[in-house]
Amino acid sequence: MSCWMPGCPALSMCRGLAALPIACLERAKDLKTRLGILLHKPELGHRTGTSSKLQLGSRRRDSSRDVLEWRESFDQLLKSKSGVNAFHTFLKTEFSEENLDFWLACEDFKKTRSKTKLASKANRIFEEFVQSEAPREVNIDHETREITRKNLSGATSACFNEAQAKTRTLMEKDSYPRFLKSASYQDMSKQAASRGSSKRSHT
């Protein structure tokens, strides 16, 4: 549209629009310069890379220490998330992972605060692991099974304590020593020990 009349509103609009891009371009140039300086600073990338390497190295040292601590006691193994995972994988090879799954379910059950959820969870755990002919029946004696059944009538966070303790003892005395002797754990501990010795040699 051509604006030739003096005082035409469109003319003043055109003038305003003509002035706007200059201001915008100046600000854009300033931003571009600042961004260029930031993007081309090599030390920023270097610092990030170093930081991530340090974190990775730290995680490796932690996991190495964990692996070697698993053989100190069964408690140490159960305290470690990676230890529980490794032990669970081993139990699968012996077709006895239900013992650890039951123990973990009991640990989770103890954290339940709602009485309604407590009762429903208790029945679900009992039906899956404890009752006779349960789909994943754990190896506990008849007396403990009956005590646990009676506990369900007034479910509290302690109603599986006896059954859980029996299952834990069974794993500690039976499966845990075999886990420590297994090829998978021997390999893990050798790798952990070699990482530890290489770290000492570099310090």
UniProtKB/TrEMBL annotation:
What would be the name of the gene that encodes this protein? Rgs16
Q: State the name under which the record lists this protein.
A: Regulator of G-protein signaling 16
The record lists the organism as Climacteris rufus
Positions of the region Disordered? 182-203
| Principal cellular location given in the protein's record | membrane
Any one Gene Ontology MF annotation carried by this entry is:
GTPase activator activity
- Print the keywords alphabetically: GTPase activation, Lipoprotein, Membrane, Palmitate, Phosphoprotein, Signal, Signal transduction inhibitor
* Compositional bias of kind Polar residues: 183-196
> GO BP, one example?
negative regulation of signal transduction
The region annotated as signal peptide is 1-19
